[in-house]
Amino acid sequence: MLPESTPELQALIERIRAASAAGTPLAITGHGSKAFLGGVPEGEPLSTLALQGISSYEPTELVVTARAGTPLAELEATLAAQGQCLPFEPPRLPGADGQAAGTVGGMVAAGLAGPARATAGSVRDYVLGATVVNGRGELLSFGGQVMKNVAGYDLARLLAGSMGELGLIAEVSLKVLPEPPASATLHFSCDEATALERLNRWAGRPLPLSASAWWAGSLLLRLSGARAAVAAAQAALAAEAGGEPVDPAQAGPFWTGLRDQRDEYFEQADAALRAGRAALWRMSLPSTAAPVAGLRGEQLIEWGGAQRWWLSEAPAATVRAAATRLGGHAQLWRSADPAVRAEAGRAPLGPVLMRLHRQVKAAFDPAGVLSPGRLITA
């Protein structure tokens, strides 16, 4: 546990205590690489960047503990030196300076995962413990540094995706895994319906699938695992569906670009957003859901069909209705129009979920000063 006596942490605790007493909102931030997510940040900036460093790392135990302001790139470089990784492939989105960025605290608070999410799991699945400062300025510790921790509800994992509304994450312990010994990428030419059918069929077979992406008639499939398993799956899928191998020198940068939203699809989306012509939506759907009907725009499909990106000029209500019809929901990802973000940037919740959210928020932050309105509509 990070000691309260640490000067950098004590300063943050005092800021939160003063803000709580005065009712002054605080906007928790790191590199600012996810400032576009959710509602517009409200309040005085409260940076975690003073909390840096890897507190402990036990490669043989597959556990690492790092402070919130530690750059994600630094953590992943440390793991890579030991042949290990964060299996959920957290994105390094552009920070305030336009360069790929991200901190450990922001990674957990945003709860984002990359191309491997469908097979490796989410950020929440790898959080073992956390030290957090709640809205009262109290230092709390949840979980631990062991993989088996079953004493009651795992509050540390509740922080994943909370966007700073429950507290300032000061330190987090994460489960890590060895990097896969082999990887291969196959390319298939097919339409959307065929891609979805294949992805769902292949997901039911013992194949070492680790990522997929479909856009504009091209399906890319990544295999990762033991060399023999990858080679056998590559041969089987090539024979079955005509999959062509992609040069590793091209495949690696493609998956990294997709993870960090710097590939061709997202570059085109950025251009359209700058021109003010459209908004970028992230749809979360059952992987077995049919193609989205009645929506115009450019689509990118990931996670075996469970994550579908839409660049569209359609109104928010139209996009959300299309997702609801298929048993999912749509989240506004980016829009250059402040009015669109103000209307649709935060998640709409039903009365039951809204009541639960408010109860949890009140327990952690009774004065409501931490990142207010960032996560949901009022």
Automatic annotation (TrEMBL):
The record's annotation in SUPFAM superfamilies points to:
FAD-binding/transporter-associated domain-like, FAD-linked oxidases, C-terminal domain
Name the Gene Ontology molecular function terms of this record.
FAD binding; glycolate dehydrogenase activity
The protein's required cofactors: FAD
Boundaries of each FAD-binding PCMH-type domain copy? 1-179
Pfam families on file: FAD-oxidase_C (PF02913), FAD_binding_4 (PF01565)
Family annotation (PANTHER family): D-LACTATE DEHYDROGENASE, GLYCOLATE OXIDASE SUBUNIT GLCE
Q: Which UniProt keywords apply?
A: FAD, Flavoprotein, Oxidoreductase
Identify this protein by name.
Answer: Glycolate oxidase subunit GlcE
- Going by the entry's taxonomy, the superkingdom of the source organism is recorded as Bacteria
- What organism is this sequence from? Aquariibacter albus
> Could you say which enzyme class this protein belongs to?
oxidoreductase
Entry EC no(s): 1.1.99.14
Q: Which InterPro entries match?
A: FAD-bd_oxidored_4_C (IPR004113), FAD-bd_PCMH (IPR016166), FAD-bd_PCMH-like_sf (IPR036318), FAD-bd_PCMH_sub2 (IPR016169), FAD-linked_Oxase-like_C (IPR016164), Oxid_FAD_bind_N (IPR006094), Vanillyl_alc_oxidase_C-sub2 (IPR016171)
